[in-house]
Amino acid sequence: MEKGEYLDLYYQMVLIRHLEERAAELYQEGYIGGFLHLYIGQEAVSTGLLSARKPQDRVITAYRDHGVAINCGIEAKTVMAELLGKVTGCSKGRGGSMHMADISKRYYGGHAVVGAHLPIAAGLALADAYEGTDAVTIAMFGDGATNIGFFHEALNLSKVWNLPVLWVCENNKYGMGTSVERASAVSEIRQKAEGYGMPNARVDGMNVIEVRNTALEWIEKVRAGGGPHFLEFITYRYRGHSMGDPERYRTPEEIHHWQENDPIGIYNKYLVENKIAADEELKELEKKALAEVQAAVEFAQASPEPAPETLFDNIYVEA
Amino acid sequence: MARITMREAISQAMWEEMERDPRVFIMGEEVGVWGGTYAVTRGFYDHFGAKRVRDTPISEAAIVGSAIGAALAGLRPIAELMTINFAFVAMDHIVNEAAKLHYMFGGQMVLPLVIRATGGGGRQLAATHSQTPDVIFAHFPGLKVVSPGTAEDAKGLLKSAIRSDDPVLFIEHATLYQSRGEVPEGDYTTPIGKSKVQRVGRDVTIVTYSKMLETSLQAADQLAKEGIQAEVVDLRTLRPLDMEPVLDSFKKTNRAVIVEEGWRSYGVGAEVAARIYEQAFDYADAPIKRVAQKEVPLPYNRNLEQLALPQVQDVINAVKEVL
């Protein structure tokens, strides 16, 4: 990687972090409604993974989708505007936090029913197999999604049809407040892929470079015609499931342990120790990210609400 | 005009559209090698091949879900559910995904998707395999729900559905596959969302669709022998619902009977009657009557099953009550 690419990964991670910290404040202040599922702590997974995709590759994820949106190239101001329900948001204020997409960037959302997007991911990959393109579909989901039928139907179909999809489990240890050990028959999620005859691996999801290198290799395995592959990234979300989480299911010590292994901190250290970037450069990037977030908030707040007369827009393509 | 079965009409619609557009393909249980459990896709696999006539596992969420994905990526899938009863295991993908993605993502997602499903009772398949749950799906904005009663409409409406950029649930009644009707030669389409007067009359308006069109037309024939001229309006599409021909007819006859195969509660009859009262109350000369399935899980025993399903005589009786 060129230095600029290293720094870009760092910038994306700190941008997601600051954007979401600001979003949490705006939520508490009442500017953001509904649910708000923060990605804080998991930034290395999406950032590393999606840095490895080619422009033709498709991406789909669950409802913890702000970071993925940024990594797919949606601007911070467009994400923030969607959070505030504004017409300038990526879903014109109709989707909110859980439903962000930009199909011009081959990012298909943002899906809020756990696991329901996984059969859809198989269908995206089916289209590429059908048309004979070399695109890969990258389907992201949490550990909680691997206990629902959709997951199993989607994995099975993808294998039966040898579809070009990389299944990516972000194992953040909890489905809402229920730990993997209490919810899943096997604690290593990757074992489920074994049952479908799928190559699989379990990888540290807190190290962005390790995520990226793994993704580069595995996306190409799929692209080469190897059929569906499965990656499990071990990660951790620092914040609650959503904003109303009582956090009775884990201890402050556990959260603290993971924060000491913060993905941004790990990467910061990596860049400095390997003399890829100086500390001051990284501090500059943080400042830049903070400024971009501030501009995003100002843009979102200044943006218009959707007009009442547009309530019925886009129910159908054909009236 | 050619006289063909509804099975042939549906088959022709798909065949012609697949010849016309390489993005159109079929996926579902036993649609390929087997030729379709209702033989609708017989011959397709040999002609179009395994890529375009795709046998799936028994996995309805994967069938509908992956069809949605393929549609989002620009293909035009026809996903077949062996029966509408199995739509319930794909319910999330039909009502929570297909019906909502276009709206919820601000119009950027387009789903040119057809879900074909066989529905209806009357073949002694007992309660889980005999349902007519069409209204459940028609409840959801974002989905189009079509259910034809004639071969001509089946072919024309299915072609429209395949060419539509909106998700369409296309419900075929299992006991209509053998029914024959005149079908125009050549390529034609029938617009989705348009009701149609299938028989002209002046004394009473019968509003119906799908299998119950056949039942209602038989009732109208018998009533005609007694000098009662029933006008029969076929809804053809449940959502979006076209009330104009219904209201025009009601304003002429001032009396209506609504006939559906599904259960009465919260049904098509309830919806259509409410709309008539809302929009043409002053024209009513008698309370509107509803004919529908008795409110039981449909039994296996032939006599009990027929007792529960709406019959020609039920329609005749209802018409005489409103006259």
Give an overview of the whole structure.
The complex is a heterodimer of chains A (319) and B (323). With 319 residues, chain A is α/β, with parallel strands linked by helices. Chain A has a single domain, classed as Thiamin diphosphate (ThDP)-binding fold, Pyr/PP domains (Rossmann fold), CATH 3.40.50. Chain A contains twelve helices and eight strands. Chain A has a six-stranded parallel sheet, with helices on both faces. In chain A, α6 links the parallel β3 and β4. In chain A, α1 (3-28) packs across α2 (43-50). The longest helix of chain A has 26 residues, at 3-28. The model of chain A has no long low-confidence stretch (mean pLDDT 95). Chain B has two domains: 2-183, Rossmann fold (3-Layer(aba) Sandwich); 196-322, Rossmann fold, CATH 3.40.50.920. Chain B is α/β, with parallel strands linked by helices and 323 residues long. Chain B has helices at residues 6-20, 44-48, 60-72, 91-98, 101-104, 134-138, 151-163, 211-225, 244-253, 268-280, 302-308, 312-322; strands at residues 2-5, 24-28, 53-55, 76-81, 114-119, 144-146, 168-173, 180-183, 196-199, 204-208, 230-234, 237-239, 256-263, 289-293. The model of chain B has no long low-confidence stretch (mean pLDDT 98). Chain B is globular, with a radius of gyration of 19 Å. In chain B, the strands form three sheets. In chain B, strands 3-2-4-5-7-6-12 form a seven-stranded mixed sheet, sandwiched between helices. Chain B has twelve helices and 14 strands. In chain B, α3 packs parallel to α4. The chains are: A alpha/beta (319), B alpha/beta (323). Chain A binds chain B through residues 58, 89-95, 99, 101-104, 108-111, 113, 116, 118-128, 130-131, 149-150, 153-154, 156-157, 160-161, 313-318, and chain B through 25, 51, 54, 56-57, 59, 61-62, 64-75, 77, 92-93, 96-97, 101-110, 141-142, 144, 164-166, 240.
